[in-house]
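Entry for the shared binder. Reason: the reviewer on the internal report wants the predicted structure included alongside the sequence.
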Amino acid sequence: MASSQTKDSVHPGTPGPEKTFFGHPRGLATLFMTEMWERFSYYGMRALLPLYLVAPGGLHMNAATATAIYSVYVSLVYLLALPGGWFADRVLGPRKTVAVSAFIIMLGHLTLALPFSGTFFAGLGLVAIGSGLLKANISTMVGHLYDGPDDPRRDGGFTIFYIGINLGAFIAPLAIGTVGEKFDWHAGFALAALGMALGLGQYLLGGRHLSERSKVVPTPLSAAEKVSLLRKSAFWAALAIVFYAIVGFSGVYTLNWLLVPITLLGLVIPVLVIARIKRDKELDRTEQSRMTAYIWFFVAAAVFWMIYDQGGSTLSIFADSSAKNTVFGWNFPVSWYQSVNPVLIMALAPVFAWLWLALNRRGKEPSTAVKFASGLILVGASFFLFLAPLSIAGGGHKAAALWLVAIYFVQTVGELTLSPVGLSVTTKMAPAKYASQMMGVWFLAVTAGDATTGLLSLAGVDLNKTGIVALEAVLAVVAGVAVWMYRNKVKQLMGNVR
């Protein structure tokens, strides 16, 4: 996979005739493949999850419960990205943390593959923990491959890495989804485990190509801190075990005893983290101002992800029951819809990158606030579009597959105006004290959005009802218009960040 160019030919001054990966450090190939296989396992399992939850041959739950579980699971993955980064910084370092996380993900998929409903949620928990640990650290390791932020190859390296993410996400539903839906659900989960095993294997074999910086634990815990951490962890773990043992033996336990606390944490923790940073008196006036502006972007992103991530739950469950999932008369698995977004991302991302540069050269590139407003309005428009197939299904007919493809297309365009921009502005606006933590804060916007969806589902709200879909669409458009109306105020708060 490595090209035959030498490092000298790409990056003058670096000695040695070492092979490169498309002109980039050889370690990028290792991380590219690790992330590709991790995304293959994650998105394949995610494509199957809501369908397995509602299937008569699966757990045969109602749509509201399935949506709640899916939303809580996704919110938990992003919630755990924050402690995942902390764990690497204080305990193991990024390289060992990624290896451990990949093993945990593989173990989680193997647990899902067991044909017992009792082990299902344990498997989901393991995959969430592993994904949270990995997500926070593998991107950091990509950065370690380059000579600081001014290395001219850096942006290109992250672009190649991003392709790996979407390549794995594209292939996964086609492979894992087909096996799970057409042959056996648990065989599909087992295939996800195999994908992660391949990723872990090549990661361990290719570790010699990674930067030595990835082995470093930046701020290791002191002996006293380790003892304190173990004591606190043991206390809270024991408290949880005792609480759920009492609830279980009393006979009043239902799934909501587990889902509701996690959902509430997904809403409360992002608020507490943002508030703690905002109240920090060590931040100077400029940093305080930028954090105030950042709250606008954070709330906007939470609303966006609340609707966008229903593409894997609400839309998928609708497609399973109410769509004609056919192409030229051939029936395809419902999980294949989850491949639409990544293939569109790979096709459209270069177009948007070119568009922003072209507009910038002419002095007409939209501000960050305008891009965010556009993303919100587009995701709202996608749910206005969803009203059409809902109406068709309400009339007793099956909606055409192209309706769903159109919805995913509009959502993907919205994603490209908001998500990459959000990642970029997060790094630019981060206070110096919280520079390494702010990416985890950005992921908390996903947590808040999905936790809101989960809470609505747990409250018995049917997210496939016309009125609810219309209400969510209106909410997103109103939020987008509000961001647009206050764009100058937000721009002023951002200071010299553009």
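Summary line for the report: The radius of gyration is 23 Å.
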